[in-house]
Design brief:
Keywords: Metal-binding, Prenyltransferase, Repeat, Transferase, Zinc. The chain has 16 helices and 6 strands. By secondary structure, it is mainly alpha-helical. The radius of gyration is 24 Å and the shape is globular. About 4% of the residues have low confidence.
Length: 419
């Protein structure tokens, strides 16, 4: 079989189309998530190493100005400009109509860093004050502040991740310039995250829920952000090798790699009422003769996987699910954060992404045969970058952006002020 190829030039054209022309109408419902779409687009071109060569300085400055237009006067960033009704009209009574958004704030900061901005116009103190208000009593974080500073929106691990990431970006190693600003309750946040580990090892959106790879990444990314700024020698068990929590988490993540791609489905014989022919009769007969004695021996033999089918091995997000492009990132990046990226079947994952979901026009689809979209396109490239794919820059798995972006972050004053 021929070597799978990463079609870099097609991906460059795909991301440029997304940046400089109208997105397909299916994105209309995501209008309030423009900051996220902007992140995928700008970060995608940066990961491909062509952001500066394919955009002008004036264009990049225009993107910077748009992001600052999304900064809320009282701290944080909104998801798009559609809720901005003007500073002159903004009061304490109506500011909940135009709230800062926790995920959008994190993405706005990362985009600014990718574009080379020094964050000097970011209202750091106001943003950190606002961030501390977003924490609930159980340690989790919400999405927006409602009337009377009520915490509203989801409360799962996604918002914990973005809150911890925002704290990491703005507080820095030495908290220069924000020494008197109340910090979030780190211990409560860690306790909430730990409570989300499910019985099989993965992390769920909340306590006693089903483990999910996306929430697992968010949990470990949040703990990584907290650990990077911690001066405490006692590490959280979830990210501490040899602990039971760590070992069960790693086993669950590795078990998410699968050759079940969901490309073909068995056709059923349906009758005029939409029921599977013969199902009722078979069920009746089975119930009447329900007896386990000898039944095991009558089970059909399972056909072992062929060598051909084992060539493609993507990842799923939950037990008994098909592979999906984005989970190559959620699982692979989490294993990288845990120092276990070597456990990924890299060759199978690469072939799955490049031969099954890489699209002819550029970008990647959700699964085989699907059209490309920004989320799956970016996460596919990050997954490949973590495996050292030629043509892609190296990536920090926690910030989910190039190491060049992280290096720029660490040149800022609150990272450079040695003490």
């Amino acid at each position: 079989m021929s070597q799978a190829l990463f079609t870099k030039e097609r991906h460059i054209r795909y991301f440029l189309r997304c940046l400089k022309t109208f997105l397909p109408d299916l994105y209309t419902s995501n209008d309030s998530n423009r900051m996220l779409l902007a992140f995928f687009t700008v970060a995608g071109l940066d990961l491909l190493g062509v952001l500066e060569s394919k955009t002008t300085r004036e264009e990049r400055q225009g993107y910077v100005e748009w992001i600052y237009h999304c900064q809320v006067p009282s701290g944080g960033f909104r998801g798009f400009t559609g809720t901005d009704f003007g500073v002159e009209r903004r009061t304490q009574d109506n500011e909940a109509w135009d709230p800062a958004n926790v995920p959008s704030t994190f993405f706005a900061l990362v985009i600014l860093l990718i574009l080379g901005d020094d964050l000097s116009r970011v209202k750091r103190a106001d943003c950190l004050r606002w961030l501390s208000k977003m924490q609930r009593t159980n340690g989790s974080f919400g999405e927006v502040l409602g009337p009377d500073d009520t915490v509203e929106g989801g409360g799962d691990l996604r918002f914990c991740c973005f809150a911890a990431g925002t704290r990491y970006l703005l507080r820095g190693r030495y908290s220069t310039g924000v020494e008197g600003i109340r910090d979030i309750d780190v211990d409560k946040l860690v306790t909430f995250i730990e409570s989300c580990q499910a019985y099989e090892g993965g992390m769920a959106e909340g306590p006693y829920c089903e483990a999910h790879s996306g929430h697992t990444y968010c949990a470990i990314s949040a703990l990584t952000f907290l650990d990077r700024l911690s001066r405490d020698s006692d590490r959280v068990p979830l990210i501490s090798p040899d602990s039971k929590q760590y070992e069960s988490l790693v086993r669950w993540l590795v078990a998410r790699q699968t050759t079940e791609l969901g490309e073909e489905e068995d056709e059923e014989d349906f009758d005029e009422d939409g029921q599977v022919n013969g199902a009722a009769q078979d069920l009746t007969q089975s119930v009447e003769g329900l007896n386990l004695d000898g039944s095991i021996g009558k089970l059909p033999d399972l056909t072992p996987p062929s060598e051909e089918s084992l060539r493609w091995a993507g990842f799923n997000g939950r037990c008994n699910k098909y592979a999906d492009t984005c989970y190559s990132f959620w699982n692979g990046a989490t294993l990288d954060l845990l120092g276990k990226i070597s456990l990924v079947g890299a060759a199978g994952n690469r072939r799955y992404l490049l031969e099954k979901t890489q699209h002819l026009v550029g970008g990647f689809g959700k699964d085989a045969g699907e059209p490309p979209d920004l989320l799956h396109s970016y996460f596919a490239m990050v997954s490949l970058a973590l495996q050292g794919e030629e043509g892609l820059d190296s990536v920090d798995p926690a910030i989910c952006a190039s190491y060049r972006t992280v290096q720029h972050l660490h040149t800022l004053p609150w990272w450079q002020d040695a003490r």
